[in-house]
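Thread: "does anyone have the structure for this chain?"

Original post by V.I.:
We have the sequence but no experimental structure in hand. Need at least a predicted one for the grant figures.
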Amino acid sequence: MAKNTGKPSEQEFERIWKTLGKKAWTWRVVDAAEVRGRTGKSGFTRSAPSDYLVAYNGVHFAEVKSTQDPTAFRFSLLRTIPSAMAVMILAAGGDYLVYIHRLPPNEWFCIPYQMIRDCSNRSLTWKELESYRWKMSNTPT
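Reply from O.Q.:
Generated one for you, tokens below.
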């Protein structure tokens, strides 16, 4: 199995939103990998609360995760500092969504961070996530 860098899923996430044209707007938050790609060296970047800001029927923070796990989405994929920031964003009345790309079979799910925060387990099974399929991900390539 090839290493899952997450970059193809982020590119697909952007492509899906672009299909809406002016009805949606996304902004990619600069991360350490982007700084390294631009400069050739690793520079200091502060931890960001999420991968993206998305404006579509309001504004929300969006974290994009991809996984090849055959049974569940494991919360260990979420980084500590952005997760702590997600809790603060929710406390302040903001919206924070986690977009999960399941590889294979190329399925997308979109869940509110509250679901992760309130879950007593360390993962959500694909069966538990069934009703959270991201419908916009069904757009043709």
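V.I.: this helps a lot. The longest strand covers residues 59-67.
O.Q.: and The chain has a mean pLDDT of 91.
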